[in-house]
Amino acid sequence: MSINIKQSLTEFVQYMGTFKFWKELVIMTLGMAVTAAAVYYFLVPSKLIIGTISGLSIVLVNIFSGMGIEMNLGNLIMIINIILLILAFLLIDSEFGFKTVYTALILGPLTNFWDAVYPWQNIANDNLVTGTPSVMGDPWLDLCCFVLLLSAAQALMFSINASTGGLDILAKIVNKYLHFDIGASVSVAGAVICCTAFFINDFRMVIIGLIGTWINGLVVDYFTATLNNHKRLCIVSKDYERIRQYIINELHRGCTLYEVTGGYSGEKSIELEVLLSKDEFSKILAWMKDEKIEAFSTAGNVSEVYGYWSSGKKRKARKEIVDKR
């Protein structure tokens, strides 16, 4: 166990010296700033509880306040996240754990940051229906704004094997071990937390929160599919060998060849299938046009790719092999 921890730390220190680390650090910081703003401006005033750790923290703050114990929301979020981080290291992986340490620990301070920069009291009005404060003036509008901001941040984090902390850790565990879609995992874990809102809200507000949690899962899936979208390109051409060489030598991707028979002509030919990123897809189409290659091509979207294709180390090794030839 100690050897694994030492190895993980060594790999992480090496990773810190790469451009990828600093790029992802900026992405995580901006994503968490958006998440903190969504929580502070749309959940805190209305006490609208969506299935998040931030929502659970709002419940606990109000419960403790009713008992005469004042607690800071940002600090409570940080405490709960620290506990959940242990699960991230034990049950997921070290990279996810290290990244989530950063995102989880800055959520609380960033929430306090927005409070110091521009308190929600400056822009909140009483809701016409419930009488509770609301930035948008209606709990449904607060819900829509929060879900859109949070879902975008969550999808962005998941795309770089990180998370916004809290509920996302539980969702990632459900996703890894029960093989649910990440959106469904978010909804399942969030629904349980939503039910704690009965301690501070009426039935109507709890139902709004549950609906919001469900929508959050759907939107996360949508954003995740959009960010991870790849192209499956199928090409039938007599110049398949030139195309294959371009894919291997220029795009550094693998491909699959099939022998096919034309239904109209009865001629045998080769179909080439390859999975590409959006940029690579554009490059190969432009190359085929410039080279005046005659081909019949079809393309489709692929939202998730596992294994050899998505491994950066294996792709780098493939490129080195090609360069040595």
Overall residue-averaged pLDDT value: 76
How large, in whole angstroms, is the Cα Rg? 24 Å
Spans of at least 5 consecutive residues whose pLDDT stays below 50 are: none
The helix content, as a percent range, equals 55-70%
* Number of separate domains: 2
Shape: elongated
Write up what this structure looks like.
The structure is a single chain. By secondary structure, the protein is of the alpha+beta class. It has two domains: 226 residues, no CATH class; 95 residues, Alpha-Beta Plaits, CATH 3.30.70.120. The protein has twelve helices and six strands. The strands form two sheets. Strands 4-5-3-6 form a four-stranded antiparallel β-sheet. A hairpin with a 6-residue loop joins β1 and β2. α2 crosses α5 and α2 packs antiparallel against α6. The longest helix is centred in the first third of the chain and has 25 residues. The protein starts with a helix and ends with a helix. The model has no long low-confidence stretch (mean pLDDT 76).
Helix-strand layout with pairing:
Elements: H1 2-16, H2 19-43, H3 53-66, H4 73-91, H5 94-117, E1 125-126, E2 133-134, H6 139-159, H7 167-178, H8 182-194, H9 203-227, E3 230-236, H10 240-251, E4 256-261, E5 268-276, H11 278-290, E6 296-302, H12 312-324
Antiparallel strand pairs: 1-2, 3-5, 3-6, 4-5
